[in-house]
Amino acid sequence: MSENIGLSDPDAKAKLKLGLFSYPVLQAADILLYRATHVPVGHDQAQHLEFARENAKNFNVAHGHFFEEPRTVISPAKRIMSLKDPLLKMSKSHQDPRSRIMLNDSPDDIQIKVKAALTDSVGGVSFNPSARPGVSNLLTLMALMDEDHRMEEQIAAESEALSMRAFKEEVARTIIKGMAEIKAKYDYFIDVRQRRRLQDVAALGNQEARRQAEDTMIHVRRLVGTDPI
Asked: Judging by beta carbons within 10 Å of its beta carbon (0-12, 13-18, 19+), is residue 204 exposed, middle or buried?
């Protein structure tokens, strides 16, 4: 949407969704309800956390210090883009399941998805996110899973002479190997024999969350003067 478009424009109204306004409010409520002091977020979420900080600050000014202003902890993880559209962030909500790598993907699933990943017709392998977003995204994925902790530029230099098919095969092998332990743990806990254990953990977490939330609300009601009589 153009930056110069007005809210009276029908196209602007059609694209304005409730989530655009409600998401930061709900996020702030979750953070403050459990009195979080540090919140790990991606770069695109940092501005939403400022809304939670502002709410905490305003409450403390009006009613006395109670909430800690939550600190932003930026995740060190790289931004991973869609395999089918490398200009979009990888998302589990994308309509095309081939656009993402899932924790429960089999090695065959990963090979198929990486093989179908959108790249370009330029020869060789190089890391240039603006000019070659698809190839660069695969390099980032490979770097994240690389057991030798190589950076994208080093992997690109060592893979420069590979065909795109051979490069994608190498990317798939690296991802499969890097995710093997994670997938094994996922398969173990999702097994029907572990279901009762997961349910018990979820129930305990639910009880603790309710206890913390109620404790926060008791203090908030007392501070704002709405204690039940």
From this structure: exposed
- pTM of the prediction? 0.74
**Does residue 169 contact residue 116 with C-beta atoms inside 8 Å?**
no
Question: In terms of C-beta density within 10 A (0-12 exposed, 13-18 middle, 19 or more buried), how is residue 42 classed?
Answer: exposed
Pick from 15, 18, 17, 79: which is nearest to 46 by CA?
Answer: 79
Rounded CA gap, 133 and 130, in Å?
A: 6
- The neighbouring-strand residues paired with 31 are none
pLDDT tens profile 81-126:
999 999 999 998 899 999 999 989 999 999 999 999 999 999 999 9
Identity (one letter) of the amino acid at 122? V
